[in-house]
Structure formats: C-alpha cells, structure tokens
Amino acid sequence: MAEAKVKAPRGTFDVLGEESSRRSALEARARSILEGAGYERIETPVFEATELFARGVGESTDIVRKEMFTLEDQAGRSLTLRPEGTAPVCRAYVEHGMHKRRQPVKLWYLSCFFRRERAQAGRYRQFWQVGAEAIGSEDPAVDAEAISLLATLLAELDVRDLRLRLSSLGSLASRREYRERLQAYLHANEASLSEDVRSRIELNPLRAFDSDHPGTQSVMRGAPLLREHLSQDDAEHFAHVCELLDVAGVAYELDPTLVRGLDYYTRTVFEFTSDALGAQSGVGGGGRYDGLVEQLGGPAAPGMGWAAGIERIMLAGDGLGAGRGGGAHAPKPLELFVALDGPREELRGAAFGLVGQARSAGLTAQLDLAGRSLKGQLGHADALGARFVAIVGDARTVLKDMQGGGQQELATNTVVHQVLRAHHAI
Ligand code: HAM
Fold it and tell me: Which residues line ligand 1 (CB under 6 A)?
C-alpha cells in the first residue's frame, strides 16, 4: 500500500527553479545597495530567548500575544522562533559591545522569520525579510538615508503602485503624555469601541487607529493626534527628516494615523505599501527605536531601521524577470560536458578527473550521472546547452564544439587547455 504523502506545513513554501533565481537577483540588488552604503551583513540565530521579544517587541502587540512559535528546551528555558529582526540585532549590538565601534553601526540581514498568523496570499508562517538597522545616532540623516535606501531598492525592483506613508510618534516622553490624553478620549467614547480596542485602552491605545471596526473608526476620526503633541525637539527632528527626503527626491504622504505593529518605535515611522498586493499591502516599513537598546540592558543608543517582506516584493515587483536582475543572476551557461564512450567502470575515473580539472580552471562543467548511452549523453549535453562536449574513450578524447560544429581528437589532459583557448578566442 502506498504511504500518504508528507506535505510542507500550512503557511510555508519551498523555493525552487525560477523563483530561486529571482530571489538570488533580489539578494544581489539588496547587497549592492546596502553594502554600498556601508551596511555590514549580520546573521543572528533562528531562535532566541522568549524574553527578548516579550521585552523588545512588547507584551501588548499581536506578535507577542498570539503569533510567536515558542518552545521549551530540556532545562525548561523558553525559546522563540524569531518573529522579527530588530530586537535580535539590538541584542547582538549589546552582546558584542558594538557601542565601542564607530557610530552608527550599520547592519543588514536577509533572513527567515516566523509568525503564527492565518496564512493567505502574501502572509505566511515562515517568511523572509531583507532588513537594515543603523544603531548609535539620532541624526535625522540616518532616518532619511535608511528610507531612501529602501525606496531605491523597491524602485530598482519595479515594485508596482508604491506609496510611502510617513509620520512621527515623538520621543517616549511626549508619547507618554499623548497616550494619557488619548486614553482619556477613548474612555469617554468607550461605548462605541470594539471589544478588542476597549480591552487594550490601558496597554496599547494607539492601536485603535488601526482598527477596521466601524464604530471605532468613527470615534478615531475625532481623536487627538500625536502630531499636535510633539515636543519642539521631536517636531524639528521630523521636519529635518522630511527636508532630507525632499532633497533625495523620495515622495511621501504624511499620515498622522500610521500605526506599526511593534511597540519599540519612537519618532520617525514609515511604511511602503503597494496597491498591487490586495489585503496584505505592506511591502516594508520601519522607524526609529531610540529606547530599545537600553530596554534590552545595553547603553543608551538610539536606532533606526526597516524590514521588507521578500515574498511581497516578489509578488508586486516586475524587476526580477529573466531579462533584468534575474538575468544577471541566471546560472552561468554550461561550458563543458564530459561524456563517456566505452565501459563506465574503466572510463569513469578519467571523466571525473577531467570535470575536476575544468572546474578548478573556472569552467562550468558537468558529466553524465545516470548511465546514459553515448547518444543519450549527447542529447543531454544538448539539452543543457553545453558549449563543448568531451567524449572520453579508451585511448583518446574527442572534443566537440557544439556551436561551431567542428571536432578534434586530443590527449585527455589537454582538453581543458583547449576549451580555455577557444573561450578566450570567442
Ligand atoms: P513588520 O512591519 O512587522 O516590521 O514587517 C516588515 C515586513 O515584513 C512587512 O511589511 C511585510 O512585507 C513582511 N511581513 C511581515 N509579516 C509577514 C508574513 N506573515 N508573511 C509575509 N510577509 C510578512 C518588522 O518586522 C520590523 N522589525 C521592521 C523594522 C526594522 N523596524 C525597525 N527596524
């Protein structure tokens, strides 16, 4: 009886074929843009102490309340598959004493993340983000540069129908004052609010702006706005960020109701959305998190960063097709295919050696791995688009030029030299 097939879990997917080369192209663009701007690649562990996210991302967020994959190790320590990258990067900044380096420390990543969400198009339980974090400076130029870099990346990948929404949440102090004012307003209008918003008035009143409940939305239209309660420092900081984005030619809409799903934000927040994506329209977003490093036990070090979803970029981006970035990253054409003409047991060693020599010389090379007949091997070489085929026989090797059509007999150990010569002549 045939066994039932084991399938990939809900909300996860395999990456292969064309999809895999589009991703490589995206990674190459991200690397070139971010490393060109002085960002250094960082990899952090796939799982972290649960406390990192509880403290960093915030107990009141959906992510911490219901979306984390949490497990316990043998010693009873609680571990969580990372749902996002900013808290881990800040943890690493503290753990490696990076505040002693020249500031800001600029780090980028392209990694997978895990959230126990209801899976749908553009929303997965394991997904990938490209992200950038600059820690150690509160200069508005850091904010504007980070936003411009993401704008450049998305533009180069031709992400369609893109909008950038921008706002400032103010510093922690001005936010605290505003929070109290907003809480008082929400309490005064409690009867019209959704159950969910009502239950979070104390923990996270700002999320009320994000609600799709009609009663809540109507209350929120009259709510006090944070923008009107920014301190002078915060307002000036935000004005500088806007000025610099203007200089960089990055178009944005000011949206005082912009709310992000993580608690660590202060001052600048932003989000890129694409109308081409439907319900899950967030392509990427981020902002400043001036208190996070300290909250994780580190020195006072302001931070700014963003992350963008790879799958959403791929859904909304036209710039990764075979002719564009994808072409730059398409596998190198096959330069040499080594075929055997005679008993495999006797010739395999010579063929294997020849492929090794060719690869050491920088050529792309393959050999028959399926015991095909000579005719079958030549057909396979043709299907792979091989430029040359070396047919290794008992006493001699024949080198066939699959494009030019000629062929010559050679000593096996001169084949690579001959292919390289022909290559340079092309
Ligand atoms: P986030 O907005 O939660 O921010 O996620 C950033 C992006 O990741 C989203 O805009 C979306 O494209 C993608 N994304 C999120 N969840 C999913 C999912 N379930 N399936 C597919 N894609 C998803 C952060 O994660 C912050 N760490 C960003 C940041 C960095 N802020 C400061 N520095």
Answer: 84-86, 115, 117, 123-124, 127, 129, 131, 133, 261-262, 282-287, 305-309, 311-312
